[in-house]
Design goal:
VC0802-like, 14 helices, five-stranded antiparallel β-sheet, alpha/beta, 2 domains, amino-acid biosynthesis, about 450 residues, Aspartokinase, binds aspartic acid, ACT_dom, 16 strands, Carbamate kinase
């Protein structure tokens, strides 16, 4: 049995929805389908979810929101009309949006989640109704009826493990089942969304719940590229990648598959395949638990993410002072800052975190370090990018680090930091933001040319 999830661009128009249902109906094993809200129809378009967020902002700022609401309704009415669907769904969408606004406007986080969920919620109903009208028995199931019960943390839902029992019952449904992605219900019966891009998470939860043989994640590319295609022209597609590799690459910017979506799948080793709705016969990329190492392709992928800051601290004889690092980390923890890397030397330490973590707190944190830690020197480096070179095979093949650092040296790129975890599955380099693209190009050339 397969669970198949279709992303926003796959369900953005009637034509795309027809493609989706052709894929779904051509395989009996595709029984449970998760759908996103209508995504972008072209590069300048706005996703339905973003329109819904704009609607929320209008309501909150007490502005006239009717035009924005009409824009949202128009997205759905275009789809309904083009599908030739006989339905009163459009009126229901309008009524639901008004209902949420009326009842939740004094509770902003709840209103935001309720409005945001509407994109997937109504798309799922439209798609189920159309497939039924085409003669394929199909039911729409709300996340509540599907058993997706989550923590009550607006915009950051986590599945409750007690949900899986009920979700497993979805296996017994004979019809095709369409479930909206991106949200669940709290135990107190509130709509709570996952983080952005969270339909992938719904798909993973359902795949785990029904113990699917395969979780198919359909998008608008034929798999995961070895490097960002806006930097490298037509990069190779990865055929197979492990969960661990995927996690490392998505950490540093590979956005095709939500990193939180791997968690439910990991324990049960449910494989994922990333496929293209527009080219469903392309093999796609498999994300699996274990794979054979390809010695010609030791590096699986290269990613680079910008927006990091490094706090660099020097203290003579730091290595002999007990509790020095603990003091610094406590300051960060007290200020609710989580850090990502901590490369160190005998008398120095750098703490790297996403710059957004420091917003509004940087000066306070630096002052606390200065006054509490008796340091010799402190400086802060903004505009840091993190380059990740990832591959399970790196531990078995000698010379990969040499290959990468030579490529970077030849391109004149200054390595501010190097870090390799004990698992040897990835190498991390701290570089200047302005050299990010050049670094990816240099590594790519060297690894795959
Ligand atoms: N529609 C939501 C978003 O744009 C969730 C998703 O598509 O996965 O973030």
């Amino acid at each position: 049995m397969k669970v198949s999830k279709f992303g926003g661009s796959s369900v953005a128009t009637a034509t795309q929805i027809k493609k989706v249902l052709h894929i779904v109906n051509s395989d009996e094993e595709r029984r449970i389908i998760i759908v996103s809200a209508p995504g972008k129809r072209h590069a300048e378009d706005t996703k339905a979810t973003d329109l819904l967020i704009r609607l929320y902002e209008k309501v909150m700022n007490q502005l006239d929101y009717q035009t924005k609401k009409q824009e949202i309704l128009a997205r759905f009415s275009d789809i309904i009309d083009e599908l030739g669907l006989k339905t009163d769904l459009l009126q229901k969408i309008d009524d639901t949006l008004e209902h949420h606004i009326k009842h939740l406007k004094n509770n902003p986080p709840r209103l935001l989640d309720a409005l945001k969920s509407s994109g997937e919620n109504f798309n799922a109903q439209i798609i189920a109704a159309y497939n039924t009208q085409q003669g394929v028995p199909t039911i729409y199931l709300s996340p509540k009826d599907a058993g997706i019960i989550v923590t009550d943390e607006p915009e950051n839902a986590q599945i409750l493990s007690s949900s899986y029992e009920k979700i497993s019952k979805l296996r017994d449904i004979a019809e095709k089942v369409i479930i909206p992605g991106f949200f669940g219900y709290s135990e107190t019966d509130h709509i709570v969304t996952f983080p952005r891009g969270g339909s992938d998470i719904t798909g993973a939860i359902v795949a785990r719940g029904v113990k699917a043989d395969l979780y198919e994640n359909f998008t608008d590319v034929s798999g995961i590229y070895r490097a960002n295609p806006t930097i490298i022209k037509s990069p190779e597609i990865i055929h197979e990648i492990t969960y661990r590799e995927m996690r490392e690459l998505s950490y540093a910017g590979f956005g095709v598959f939500h990193d939180e979506a791997l968690q439910p799948l990991y324990r049960y080793r449910i494989p994922v395949v990333i496929k293209n709705t527009n080219r469903p016969d392309d093999p796609g990329t498999y994300i699996v638990h274990d794979r054979e190492i390809n010695r010609r392709r030791v590096v699986t992928g290269i990613s680079c993410d910008k927006g990091f800051t490094s706090i660099n601290i020097k203290k003579y004889l730091m290595n002999r002072q007990v509790g020095f690092t603990a003091k610094i980390l406590k300051i960060l923890a007290d200020n609710e800052v989580s850090f990502d890397h901590m490369p160190s030397g005998i008398d120095n330490i750098s703490i790297i975190m996403r710059t957004s973590q420091l917003e509004g707190k940087e000066e306070k944190i630096l002052n606390e370090i200065r006054s509490q830690c008796e340091i010799d020197e402190l400086n802060v480096e903004h505009d840091l990018a993190i380059l990740m070179v990832v591959g399970e095979g790196m531990s078995a093949v000698v010379g990969t680090a040499n290959k990468i650092t030579s490529a970077l040296a030849n391109a004149g790129i200054n390595l501010k930091m190097i870090n390799q975890g004990s698992s040897e599955i990835s190498m991390m380099f701290g570089i200047s933001t302005k050299e990010a693209e050049a670094a990816v190009k240099a590594c790519y050339q060297n690894c795959y040319a």
